[in-house]
């Protein structure tokens, strides 16, 4: 490699074409590496970047992730100076083919994490979940064999989020459109597990949804199809939420097609909210399931591949036990779903309501939480606080959780959430100067840059790298990037890290659609400590921007 700027590409890739056109317009020369030319080149792209897609660019050792970031850097006037300031190209000649292949291998974390079988739980507060999924799916989903390691997370996700979010989305959108939005946001994320679930959950009615979405996008929606132009626009909105690319034009298209609704009896704004609820649920599920590499239930995997053409991908296929794992007498005692929801809501109410509760727990009412549907707001507030604040039931410190969420938001380019999570991490750490510097350099630490090394332990840096991986679409876990987490965190602790990333994904997808505004307290925090809210600059800082000392 001789050019300072290196680009990994493959033939017939429109994103690679866009990247090369951007570099050409910027007047930048580059070395090109075709990943289809040899296994070494294909593995090297992943070994260096941690990302399975192309293009992947490198300005010296600075990794630039994909054509979208190259275009954004050029539009911001940052690309040319970034390349000019780069050191020489990365020297990879000393790396053997075996070393590169080993480091690029996609490690499936479920192979390191034992299952926790909750299908015969002795916790009465979990029994209603078993009955719910017996009625909803007919079985207990594979993902719960891993999330169950953190029982409070398992219960809170189902009772305080999923039941309300999916139920609200289904009520507003109707079941076919709920399936369409869930499928589309999972497809954009690259989560095969959830794509299979959404196409198989309602049998023949859901298996045909992907083709109906495509027909509606082409303007060829069949008469009587539940998916027309309006519903396809909602599916596209859910997909854009997964990649944080919701635009004014897309929202305008949803609203312009409101008079052509085929199912929903609610107004257009309610439909947008319903889509945000579905996207939020899958923001958690896509992230958690892809980080864990959960197997797909065999009967649904076969059904979805045969009828909808959706393959298992990096997710394996489990043995058939999951189709019958609730085929035993389920306990009938314990609190109902409604009673558990009421229990959590009562905690928030006892604190004085959502405003008082969040100010006690977080120091402010985040604007995204203010925009959450009012009837679900208390549930969301307690779910977020219990997952992200210091609790006896979690070994991960609150500051690190918020820094992970900040890294995830920076990776996804969500300026608002990166900013607010920075303040929440600062407050969780005690609001001192070291906390400022850790918020400033957490993304550097996630990417193993020198600026972030002295501020974080190896264990913390491993967790931050997991958070960065969680911000990719699709999510993969190459050995070179995930091995430190395996080395420094126990299998059960990994579940806590994945859950934190899932919460970040949940909030990010909702916020991509709801568009919260930065809070005054957050703006003051950024200004006081000279922290930028520009996630593009945080991903790719110029030399003069790399300020802030490790203390």
Strand content: under 5%
| Total DSSP helices | 28
Helical amount: 55-70%
Strand sequence of the main sheet, in spatial order?
A: 2-1-3-4
What best-fitting shape do the alpha-carbon axes yield?
A: globular
**Rg on CA atoms, Å:** 23 Å
- Biggest β-sheet description: 4 strands, mixed
Brief rundown of the structure:
With 551 residues, this protein is mainly alpha-helical.
Would you write up a description of this structure?
The protein has 551 residues and is mainly α. The chain is 59% helix and 3% strand. It has helices at residues 14-25, 39-49, 66-75, 79-84, 97-104, 124-136, 144-147, 151-173, 175-189, 192-200, 204-207, 209-217, 229-242, 248-256, 268-292, 298-308, 337-350, 354-362, 367-371, 377-388, 398-412, 415-428, 433-446, 458-470, 479-488, 491-514, 520-528, 535-539; strands at residues 5-9, 31-34, 56-59, 62-64. The chain has a four-stranded mixed β-sheet. The longest helix has 25 residues, at 268-292. It is globular.
């Amino acid at each position: 490699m001789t050019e300072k700027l290196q680009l990994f590409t493959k033939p017939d890739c429109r994103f690679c074409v866009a990247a090369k056109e951007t570099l050409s317009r910027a007047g930048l020369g580059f070395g090109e590496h075709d990943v289809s030319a040899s296994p070494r080149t294909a593995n090297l792209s992943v070994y260096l970047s941690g990302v399975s897609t192309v293009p992947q660019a490198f300005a010296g050792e600075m990794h630039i992730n994909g054509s979208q970031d190259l275009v954004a850097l050029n539009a911001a006037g940052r690309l040319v100076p970034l390349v000019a300031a780069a050191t020489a190209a990365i020297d990879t000649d000393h790396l053997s083919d075996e070393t590169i292949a080993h480091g690029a291998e996609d490690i499936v974390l479920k192979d390191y994490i034992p299952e926790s079988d909750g299908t015969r739980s002795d916790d009465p507060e979990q029994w209603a979940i078993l009955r719910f999924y017996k009625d909803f799916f007919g079985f207990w989903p594979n993902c719960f064999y891993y999330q169950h390691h953190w029982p409070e997370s398992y219960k809170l996700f189902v009772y305080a989020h999923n039941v309300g979010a999916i139920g609200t989305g289904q009520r507003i959108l109707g079941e076919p459109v709920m399936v369409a939005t869930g499928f589309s946001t999972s497809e954009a994320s690259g989560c095969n597990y959830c794509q299979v679930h959404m196409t198989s959950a309602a049998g023949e009615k859901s298996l045909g949804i992907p083709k109906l979405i495509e027909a509606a996008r082409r303007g060829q929606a069949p008469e009587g199809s539940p998916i027309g132009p309006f519903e396809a626009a909602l599916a596209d909105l859910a997909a854009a939420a997964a990649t944080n690319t919701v635009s004014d034009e897309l929202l305008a298209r949803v609203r312009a097609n409101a008079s052509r609704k085929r199912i929903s009896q609610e107004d257009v704004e309610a439909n947008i909210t319903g889509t945000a609820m579905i996207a939020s649920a899958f923001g958690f599920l896509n992230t958690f399931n892809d980080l864990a590499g959960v197997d797909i239930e065999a009967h649904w995997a076969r059904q979805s591949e045969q009828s909808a053409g959706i393959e298992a991908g990096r997710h394996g296929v489990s043995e058939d036990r999951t189709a019958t794992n609730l085929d035993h007498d389920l306990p009938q005692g314990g609190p109902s779903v409604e009673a558990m929801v009421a229990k959590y809501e009562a905690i928030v109410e006892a604190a004085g309501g959502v405003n008082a509760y969040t100010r006690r727990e977080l120091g402010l009412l985040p604007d995204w939480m203010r925009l959450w549907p009012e009837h679900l707001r208390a549930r969301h507030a307690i779910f977020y606080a219990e997952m992200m604040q210091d609790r006896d039931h979690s070994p991960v410190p609150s500051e690190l959780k918020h820094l992970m969420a900040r890294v995830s938001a920076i990776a996804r380019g969500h300026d608002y959430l990166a900013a607010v999570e920075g303040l929440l991490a600062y407050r969780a750490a005690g609001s001192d100067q070291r906390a400022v510097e850790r918020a400033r350099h957490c993304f550097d630490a996630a990417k193993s840059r020198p600026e972030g090394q002295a501020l974080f332990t190896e264990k913390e840096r491993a967790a931050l790298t997991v958070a960065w991986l969680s911000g990719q679409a699709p999510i993969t876990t190459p050995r070179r990037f995930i091995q430190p987490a395996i080395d420094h965190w126990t299998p059960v602790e990994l579940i806590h890290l994945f859950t934190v990333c899932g919460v970040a994904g949940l909030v990010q997808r909702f916020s991509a659609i709801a568009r919260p505004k930065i809070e005054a307290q957050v703006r003051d925090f950024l200004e006081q400590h000279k922290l930028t809210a520009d996630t593009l600059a945080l991903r790719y800082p110029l030399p003069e921007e790399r300020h802030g000392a490790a203390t």
